[in-house]
Write a structure and sequence with these properties.
- The complex is a heterotrimer of chains A (289), B (544) and C (348).
- Chain A has 289 residues and is mainly α.
- Chain A folds into 2 domains: 56 residues, no CATH class; 220 residues, Orthogonal Bundle (MetI-like fold).
- The longest helix of chain A has 32 residues.
- In chain B, the strands form 7 sheets. In chain B, strands 3-11-4 form a 3-stranded antiparallel sheet, with no helix packed on it. In chain B, strands 8-5-9 form a 3-stranded antiparallel sheet. In chain B, strands 1-2 form a two-stranded parallel ribbon.
- Chain B has 18 helices and 16 strands.
- In chain B, 53% of the residues are buried.
- In chain B, 39% of the residues lie in helices and 13% in strands.
- Chain B folds into 4 domains: 212 residues, D-Maltodextrin-Binding Protein, domain 2 (3-Layer(aba) Sandwich); 153 residues, 3-Layer(aba) Sandwich (D-Maltodextrin-Binding Protein, domain 2), CATH 3.40.190; 31 residues, no CATH class; 61 residues.
- By secondary structure, chain B is α/β, with parallel strands linked by helices.
- Chain B starts with a helix and ends with a helix.
- Chain C contains 18 helices and no strands.
- The radius of gyration of chain C is 26 Å and the shape is flat.
- Chain C has a domain of 242 residues: MetI-like (MetI-like fold).
- Classes of the chains: A mainly alpha (289), B alpha/beta (544), C mainly alpha (348).
- At the B-C interface, α3 and α16 of B face α10 and α17 of C.
Chain lengths: 289, 544, 348
């Protein structure tokens, strides 16, 4: 059936609107990338637009030439991988269990989770807890305190609830127990939501700095976010008694954009692998029932 | 882990009583302190002797880590400290970006290190009532270098200003022999010359200068576009208007000002002098001389206008002007411009500047008083932060390795070591590779020491600023714990009103004839109660 | 019944082959029905009231899944909550973390009688509501627009670029905003073209809300759409095919298939966002505001920040925090109840 003219017009408008969105979101990003490769004079003069002017790698060199940067980067990767794994296990298990409406005490457990969305302890009680547990300056202080995001939990629960019960019941008849159903039926069918949750948790862990700031006091354990954040703060500090390094003005001019590029690169690299789970859709109809 | 407040008070009382009973012959009163806290201490530690613990000791210290010179375990700084003093420091590393918050957390949780540096006078007040911080004034007899400097430089009044309601003070401030003004205005001297404008000495002359700049340079929108959200200029200029001011980064502590004639504190923003100051700056904005966005724009925007030649005046400190030159070499071209710091213009009240000879210092964890190496620790802090030798060591490093001193006492870095452009050919950096001249240990000291690393231009500026008179210090008016809570809660809404009205008046959003209505508003927000509390505290303290 | 057997028949394939596409097709063929039905409560009778020991014996595996996460909640989320007691006790930094002695409602009274507090409370609510009204629908609309694209490659590219603003730190975003809105910035240049006078946006309280909300939409639209796109993939193409055959145009298809398809996701997110709407961006406001815009820009968190610098009063901050938490919880519970009644989906 052919499209109506109204729909054709809409499609044109759609493309235009989306192109506008691309422009509005891409231009500032490219501008930042360009600045990260530009010289300080050009940045200050406002001459940098989409292309780097006065190609300059000084800030990158300073940052990436620092072994502490790489140590911290390695830390971030470890924290992210371990943190995301733990989060996914906890969240999926809990979400699946509470998605079963027939489970006694279900509302109690949901309440336990939802309450924590609004009520939390302050930084001092949290700090004392972590210290008392002996977790200060360890990996666990980073990956455990925020292991479950109730936001993600509730979304996952929603997904599980909307799965047809017949599938699970049929599987039960075939002899699978709860674990079997979970691992062999439900999870494989939930790739879209699992991929999304992994992405969300990974990004959350990747950008996290507050926990590290609270519970770590050895610079070789810091994640790279603290490293970069400190660099930005140092660059914009109001000067003072001490002098600064030779290339301080160059660093100050584009450290923020360099930070942005270094932080977003890994996400950009990983994203295409996740994207296939939610941009396709046409594939699903390929196999008819 | 929890500090028992009462025990600390009891211990302090016992020590002061015992101290009073000891004959005061210049020897530290450590005799009154038990042997259980004097392990490792020197028996006759005097001013200008190098401290060396009688046995190896270690102390925890809070360390603010700057990315420009990240902390390294193998720094010569740490090794040399251990070699000279037998002390090993154990740093708790905190990124500079969030130092204050972490410090607050650690003290609040009772987990702070023994030595807590980088504490500005005033910041320690919050921790006084819990007893988490040592009332160091009780122990200064352990610190001969500190006492000597206070006496030699006549700083008793400034130290008094630090006292809390109980008469003690809780922070060991950094000491400067002389006032060290840092923030002022930087001008394009080449443009001034070209347009035949003389360097202004008063604020009226400054306004005239801006007017001439504007007429002579019609392409520039505003000859003066300020950074620091106008705060540095307002703060630095306010004493010359016989007022006190600040906004954002430059807030004057609690908004009150001491009126010596009336012998009481008044709320600075409610005075006629404040109105005069506002009127002046309003005239600058209304006349198109000062960029109205000075008060809200991010620094980068203001700096951009100056370094690209669109504006000709901007605020700066000693480091900023170096940065401007670097940028302007590429934006305008080296040799095609000239900039210079000018001394702050005088105002209706004369050539007055504000400032304190005290700067950020050290707090001591109250638990240290029970530590067996307590006396040794105080002696160590005294040597490192307050002795000439200790300060020189912290700033310059090791003679022969990082610097050399010639017969007349002039210090020069060893050729292979660079710092802040003093030895551009140097392959190593004094801070990055050796750990000296870092912000955690090197900041106070004699004028000679402070200026030893300054550029000649900066030294010239400092000399010129000597012609200004520092305004009189306010007397101490410490609040008791009960009053403090209410006082600090009133402070913010009052300050918010002031900040808002200040900008509205200057920018013309509100007419200056409304000033009295503004004062009435302040009264409605509790200004009278606020100043009354402060004046009562002042009177109470006077009686002590 | 027939469905069930079909599903059971598929099961051999499912277990044997791991062809998730086929499984998805089987699953989503259920899709047009209300979620309640799909959830299986419709099937079978609600079991008679179980005792705890009975339930534990029957569903022990399910409870085992709950064990570790529940322990996590107790240790890492509930234990520290005890510290909130300092809202009712006098806290001295460095003293006991649970405070020194009871002061009852002193701090609660303090903020209730503080006119400054109610101003910032009003601002918080206003900004929160505005953000919700504008930032919430945008990702949905964006996801739907993307869904209409036929060119797969273009769609992928647009989607990948659209989330980039999410990764720009608040510092960068604030800097951009200042640049755009400055007197010589792009926006004022445009106004100049059309003959208007320059507006100093960041210095006028009235302009703060539009600036804040539009920057929020810009930053969240692309990233927020991800969840909806994930939900869209679960809608069976066959439904569209069937609708097309029945003569429905695209708009009708969107209304009757697409929207109901992502309705559960929309409702879930709506309820969650309502609960957290008071958590307006602290750091962003801190960077963007100034005394001139306090009347609209100052929110609870920024006000507490300024108060905290001067007073370091943890108890006061905790009292206000509890107040905000109670409001948030009440809001979520109401939103959830309304959602359950109106649409049939709810968080619990």
């Amino acid at each position: 059936m052919k499209d109506s003219t109204g729909y054709k017009v809409f499609r044109v408008f759609n493309v235009v609107a989306l192109l506008a969105i691309v422009f509005v979101t891409f231009y500032p990003f490219l501008n930042m990338v360009a600045q990260s490769f530009s010289s300080e004079g050009n940045i200050s003069a406002g001459k940098v637009n989409l292309v780097p002017r006065g190609f300059n790698l000084e800030t990158y060199r300073v940052v990436m030439g620092d072994s502490m940067f790489w140590t911290n980067y390695k830390n971030t990767i470890i924290y992210t991988v371990v943190g995301t794994a733990i989060s996914m296990v906890f969240t999926t298990a809990f979400a699946y269990a509470i998605s079963k409406r027939h489970l006694k005490g279900r509302n109690l457990f949901i309440g336990i989770a939802v309450f924590t969305m609004f009520f939390a302890g302050g930084i001092i009680p949290n700090y004392v807890l972590i210290t008392t547990l002996g977790m200060k300056n360890t990996l666990w202080a980073i990956v455990l305190p925020n292991a479950i995001s109730v936001f993600n939990l509730l979304i996952m629960k929603s997904f599980f609830e909307n799965m047809p019960a017949e599938l699970e019941e049929a599987a039960a008849i075939d002899g699978l127990n709860t674990y079997g159903i979970l691992f062999r039926i439900v999870l494989p069918l939930s790739k879209a939501v699992l991929a999304t949750m992994i992405l969300f948790y990974a990004v959350m862990n990747w950008n996290a700095w507050f926990g590290a700031f609270l519970y770590l006091d050895k610079s070789e354990l810091f994640p790279v976010t603290i490293y970069l954040r400190n660099l930005i703060a140092g660059a914009s500090a109001a000067g003072g008694v001490g002098g600064v390094s030779e290339n301080a003005t160059q660093i100050a001019s584009n450290i923020k954009s360099v930070t942005m590029v270094l932080s977003v690169l890994p996400i950009l690299a990983v994203y295409p692998f996740v994207q296939k789970y939610f941009v396709s859709g046409v594939m699903l109809g390929a196999v008819k029932q | 882990m929890r500090t028992n407040y009462l025990r600390i008070v009891a211990a302090a009382a016992a020590i002061s009583v015992a101290g009073a009973l000891t004959a005061c012959s210049g020897t530290p009163a450590k005799k009154a302190l038990g042997a259980d806290v004097s392990v490792g201490a020197m028996k006759d530690f005097k001013a200008d002797t190098t401290f060396k613990a009688t046995e190896p000791v270690d102390f925890s210290i809070l360390y603010s880590d700057m990315n420009t010179y990240p902390i390294k375990k193998d720094w010569l700084l740490w090794q040399k400290i251990t070699e000279l003093t037998n002390v090993t420091l154990d740093p708790t590393v905190v990124p500079f970006s969030d130092y204050a918050q972490k410090r607050s957390l650690l003290i609040g949780a009772g987990d702070a290190p023994l030595i807590i540096p980088k504490t500005y006078p005033g910041q320690e007040s919050a921790y006084v009532s819990s007893g988490a911080i040592l009332p160091v004034s009780d122990y200064v007899d352990l610190m001969p270098n500190y006492q000597k400097k206070i006496k030699d430089w006549g700083m008793e009044k400034e130290i008094d200003g630090l006292r809390q309601a109980d008469g003690k003070y809780y922070v060991l401030p950094g000491l400067h022999q002389e006032l060290w003004p840092d923030y002022t205005l930087v001008i394009r001297t080449d443009v001034f010359e070209k347009d035949g404008i003389k360097v202004p000495g008063t604020w009226d002359e400054f306004k005239t200068a801006l007017e001439k700049l504007k007429t002579a340079n019609p392409t520039s929108k505003y000859p003066f576009s300020d950074r620091f959200q106008g705060g540095a200029t307002l703060t630095a200029s306010s004493p010359s208007f016989d007022s006190a001011m600040g906004s954002g980064l430059f807030h004057i502590a609690d908004g009150t000002r001491f009126d010596s004639k009336a012998d009481k504190f008044v709320y600075a923003a409610a005075t006629p002098q404040y109105k005069t100051m506002l009127t002046y700056f309003h005239s600058l904005v209304a006349g198109g001389l000062m960029d109205p966005e000075s008060f809200t724009q991010p620094d980068a925007q203001a700096v951009q206008q100056f370094t690209t030649g669109q504006s000709f005046v901007i605020s700066a400190n000693s480091q900023n002007i170096v940065d401007y030159r670097k940028t302007m070499d590429s934006t305008l071209g080296a040799g095609k411009y000239a900039i210079k710091k000018i001394t702050l213009p005088g105002g209706p009240a004369g050539n007055l500047i504000a400032g304190s000879r005290l700067e950020n210092g050290v707090m001591i964890n109250a638990q240290a008083a029970k530590n067996k190496n307590f006396v040794a620790m105080m002696q160590f802090v005294d040597w490192l932060y307050y002795s000439d030798a200790g300060q020189e060591f912290a700033k310059w490093g090791v003679q022969g390795t990082t610097y050399n001193k010639d017969a007349s006492g002039v210090r020069k870095l060893v050729p292979s070591v660079n710092y802040n452009g003093l030895n551009p050919a140097g392959t190593k950096d004094l801070r990055v590779d050796f750990g000296f001249s870092g912000g955690v240990f090197a900041y106070g000291g004699t004028t000679d020491l402070l200026q030893s690393m300054m550029s000649s231009e900066e030294i010239e500026f400092q000399k010129a600023m000597k012609s200004k008179t520092p305004e009189a210090l306010a007397p101490p008016a410490p609040l008791s714990d009960a009053v403090r809570e209410q006082y600090t809660l009133l402070a913010t809404p009052l300050q918010d009103s002031v900040d808002q009205a200040t900008l509205q008046f200057i920018l013309g959003q509100r007419d200056l004839s409304q000033f009295d209505a503004f004062v009435t508003e302040l009264k409605g927000k509790g200004m009278t109660t606020y100043t009354d509390m402060k004046n009562k505290a002042y009177q109470d303290f006077k009686k002590k | 019944m027939a469905d069930r057997r079909a599903a059971a028949g598929q099961l051999d394939n499912l277990v044997a082959t791991s062809d998730e596409v086929a499984r998805s097709a089987a699953w989503v063929s259920k899709w047009g029905k209300s979620s309640k039905q799909a959830n299986g409560t419709g099937k079978g009778v609600k079991p008679a009231r179980q005792t705890w020991s009975g339930a534990l014996r029957k569903n022990w595996r399910l409870y085992s899944l709950l064990a570790l996460p529940t322990l996590y909640f107790i240790v890492f989320r509930y234990l520290p909550m005890a510290g909130n007691v300092i809202a009712f006790r006098k806290f001295r930094p460095g003293g006991s973390i649970f405070g020194e002695y009871w002061v009852g409602f002193q701090y609660i009274d303090m903020f209730i009688h503080d006119p400054a507090f109610w101003n910032v409370f009003k601002n918080t609510i206003t900004l929160g509501v505005l953000t919700l009204v504008f930032s919430f629908p945008m990702p949905i609309i964006f996801a739907l627009l993307l869904n209409e694209l036929r060119a797969k490659k273009f769609k992928k590219i647009v989607q990948s670029i659209s989330y980039l603003p999410h990764f720009m730190s608040v510092v960068i975003v604030a800097g951009m905003i200042f640049q755009l809105t400055s007197l010589q910035g792009t926006v004022n240049q445009l106004i100049g073209h059309f003959g208007g006078g320059a507006i100093s946006f960041m210095q006028q309280a009235a302009w703060f809300r539009p600036v804040y909300v539009s920057s929020d939409v810009w930053q969240t639209m692309g990233w927020g759409a991800i969840l909806y796109l994930a939900a869209l993939t679960t809608i069976d193409e066959n439904l569209y095919e069937a609708a097309r055959i029945d003569g429905a145009n695209r708009r009708q298809q969107t209304w009757h298939i697409t929207l109901p398809g992502i309705a559960p996701m929309i409702m879930t997110l709506l309820v969650l966002n309502i609960g957290s709407f008071m958590a307006v961006g602290f750091e962003k406001i801190l960077l963007l505001y100034n005394p001139l815009t306090y009347p609209t820009a100052d929110v609870i968190s920024t006000y507490l920040y300024r108060v905290g610098i001067v007073s370091n009063n943890f108890s006061y901050a905790t009292a206000i925090g509890l107040f905000e938490s109670v409001i948030g919880l009440a809001l979520v519970m109401s939103a959830n109840a309304i959602s359950r009644r109106l649409v049939g989906t709810s968080l619990w």
